Amino acid sequence: MTPPVRTAPAAAPPAVGVPPFDQVAVAVVPGADLVVRLPGIVLVVAAGTSAPAPARGSALGGWGAAPAGEPAARPAAGDRRAGELVALCRRVSAAGRRAPGRRLHEELRAWLPTATGVPSFALAAATEEGLALALLGDGVAEVPDLGLRLTSAQGEQPLPDGRPYLDRLVAWPPAALRLSAGATSGTAPHPLADLEAGVVPGAGAVLSAAPVPGTPTAPAPPSTGGTVVAAVPTPPVVRPSTPPVPPAHPPARSSGSAPAPPAPSAPVAPLPVELPPPARSVSFLDPPAPEEVEPPRPPLPVVTEPQPPGALRSDEADPRPRVAGILCKNGHLNDPRVLFCAQCGIRTTQQTAVPVEGVRPPLGLLVFDDGATVSLDADYLLGREPETDPRVRGAGYRPLLVVDHTGGVSRHHAEIRLEGWDVVLTDIGSANGTLFARRGDLAWTSLIPGQPVQLLPGTTVRMGGRQFTFESPHGGY
Amino acid sequence: MSESPIAQQHARTPRPGDLTDRLVATDVWTDQMLAEAGIPVVDVPFVTFGGGIGSFVTVDYLRISGVPTSAIRVLTPLRTPWESYEYLTTVSQIPRSERLRSDSQSRPDNIWGFPSYAIAEGPKQWWNVFLEPIFTRYYTPRAGHAFTAMEREMHRIRYPEMVVPGQVRMVRRRAGGGYFTILTPPEGAAPTRRIAYRSQWVHVAVGYPGLKFLPDLQRYRQRYDDFARVVNAYEPHEHVYERLHRRPGTVLVRGGGIVASRVLQRLIDDRDQRGLQTQVVHLFRTYVAGAHGPSVFSRRPGADGWAYQGFNYPKSVWGGQLKQRMRRTSGEERARLYKEMGGTNTPLRDDWLEQLARGRREGWYRVVIGQIEDMRPVGDLVEVAAGTDQGPQLGTFDAVIDCTGLEADIREHRVLADLLDHSGAGRNPVGRLDVGTDFELLGTRNGGKIYASGSATLGGPFPGVDTFFGLQIAAQEIADDLARQGFVQRLGPGRSTSQWWKWVRNTQI
């Protein structure tokens, strides 16, 4: 049992983030093995190599003479095991698709000793902070650009029956990762090839993940079992101290012969996913780049004309509805009927009420029986499913969901409209009706459907088992 | 609501009979200038504008003294004299059923002050007024009582016949004596945009220039467009109580005056009657720990942050030695005396004392000394940063109720500013309109007189002008002065007695 190795977080600044596993492009190298991609898991498993060919019976009635040579494809015991392996991966992936890596490690450790004849495979699965690799038999995981290569023989804990097996947690390499189950293939996959999900034939899978810059990695959690946290033998892979700069354009495909670690060029180039651009280091001491220097602006004009008062200063572009009101001495728009300005408190009766148009302030608020308040700055449609009403979708009504456990609130129950400085309530054909009572009323009044009623401050409205009160700083007391 | 036609109407279409630039720029007008501008002129000897309780009390005095309704015009945008007053008392939690902070015999509807409110209310209150303030707290009338009594008197003196609805724009002196009062009637009520009232006497009773919400409150409203959680006590804020009823919450109350007392009482009444769990944090700017005052003879009790005083002013300003002393002083000395008796205070009432003591004991009423520095909405709450005597504090509240009703400067009122700029009116040591002992607006005399009463004249030789009793004293002085000029008969004992009987019998005059 190896003690978990911790990398000193101070020595290795966590500059490279973990790319989302399911957004990584997986290109399939042509070949005869199987490439499996499930959410959170990429698996390459050798097809039908480890099982002997079944004895061909001589009497295969009706098939005619036996053909010469090997049959093109034959059902193998290894393929059965491969099917079990895929099923296991599928199960683990379904259980936790975001980071199935650790779980998969444990399940494989439990399953592999019980199963014989499992074909070689190479597997990569997502974990919270990197990748979980599992290699069996001829399985290889390599990063050609960086010259890194892991085989099952490097595993610290072989299976009990002596088969070489490696399972490890590694960091995302900053270049393409290639998985294969032993088959070698010279043909590189097409740069646009991408397997999003499924099981296809192929000799290997190339995972090209450009690292997400800037996202700090979480500190490595203590490992379990025999796994070692981020202990990949070759040091340059693990947490490079400077974030690699991905090229701005898809790089020309280069053979991985001359790897240049600071600027790796991915063999499988353009990514189908939009990754954020890398953070650029900016020194505030250096003079800015010429394209960043802003041209000098002309000075702002000197204001000589009197400015419109505050309420009118908001220009015509303000989308909020406008209303005719009176201005107080200090330029606040008010309901023509109030005695004191709602903004500053000055008397509005002291000067001639000149009607002007301005942006309407909120006309009041609804206080619901559970203490929730709704500020009335737009028209509202109240109900159990207000968002399904065409008025909400088309005419600018805002939906106001009224949750009622007694079931007395209709899907579209009532609407509250702002008309000038008044707030108007209309029952829009609810099943159980709407009741209202003004302040001081002793009994409820039933609202006639379709007939609007003006809400005065203090009016309480009841719909189903819910009720709310309208209060307003405008319009009387 | 048809919105656009009104706006178009306003779009500077010159309507007949509007003010011209020449008129606005000229201090003294001739009849010719108004004729050229096409403004019709109405002749009436006495014009009062404002139309609140100040106008009402003055008109009441003149009518009882025998002035016919045809000789008086009240120019006002208000429907009833108490409309503005009732609005302010109602929103600041003194509805009709609650008690005002006023004396028993200060009756705006009864110039004699007898029978007083207490006597009218019933035998139980009679003893109270005999024993106060030593053995009992001061008697104060219910707001509703005052309003209904005023309504009765309003019809008795045929007040509605004298009312002309509209806004007064300005008062200017007339070449050859008298004044022009420019009225803007409501839209569509008159063929011309303005009407000029030519009179020998003008009475200015526009009341409080306005409230002045503190800058932080205005800033909060403009920045966050939130009128619901940070409110002033002088505006409708019933939704705050409504919300606390639905859901327990914490409220920050600011201020140490009577309105703060009333708001706290409302919060605690709701708490008691409805079984709420409201928590109250009370922010004092000035914490009064005990009795205070310059000498043993002018001290005010205080405790727990509050300064206590039965009425707005020390009782002696209405008729005692303080009234005499103020009458003789002027300038700096008077300003100093005003400062001495000023300061926010609240009456001592047993129910308040009991409620707050219980709150302190049970921990749901806490006091903080300091000032609000910043407010911002956080989710459904308001985050308040306050600088306190314990250092800066940060707290979140369901609502902030600001009970500081600072009065605005008189220049905030357009008519008063116009009087200062064009008609020769001046300011007194306290900064309000400068009036003499007969409430004449000093410096405006022009073959007639402009009188002023009410809050705008605070700082004059008579303190307490912004109270019911202060308005009555002003009305009496004005009526006496008008009697000296021959406009009315002095109200002698005989007429006074017969008029009192008419009042008792509610006979219309």
Shape of chain A: elongated
CATH 2nd-level architecture of the largest domain in chain B: 3-Layer(bba) Sandwich
Radius of gyration based on Cα positions of chain B: 24 Å
The largest sheet of chain B has its strands arranged as: 11-21-12-13-18-19-20
Low-confidence stretches of chain B: 1-12
Enumerate how many helices of chain A there are, as a single number.
4
Assembly state here?
heterodimer
Overall form of chain B: globular
> What is the average of the pLDDT values of chain B?
88
- Structural class of chain A, by secondary structure, is mainly beta
Mean pLDDT of chain A: 72
**Order of helices and strands of chain A, N to C?**
EEEHHEEEEEEEEHEEEEEEHEEEEEEEE
What does this structure look like?
- The complex is a heterodimer of chains A (477) and B (509).
- By secondary structure, chain A is mainly beta.
- Chain A has three domains: 21-49 and 77-234; 308-361, no CATH class; 365-471, Tumour Suppressor Smad4, CATH 2.60.200.20.
- Chain A is 8% helix and 24% strand.
- The model of chain A is unreliable at 1-16 and 211-266 (pLDDT under 50).
- By secondary structure, chain B is of the alpha/beta class.
- In chain B, 35% of the residues lie in helices and 21% in strands.
- Chain B is built from 17 helices and 23 strands.
- Chain B has helices at residues 4-10, 21-25, 31-37, 53-65, 83-91, 117-121, 123-131, 143-156, 215-224, 238-246, 258-274, 321-328, 331-341, 350-362, 414-422, 468-484, 493-505; strands at 28-29, 41-43, 46-49, 72-76, 163-165, 167-174, 179-184, 195-199, 201-204, 211-212, 230-232, 250-254, 279-284, 292-295, 298-300, 302-303, 306-307, 365-378, 381-388, 391-397, 399-402, 406-407, 449-452.
- Chain B is globular.
- The chains are: A mainly beta (477), B alpha/beta (509).
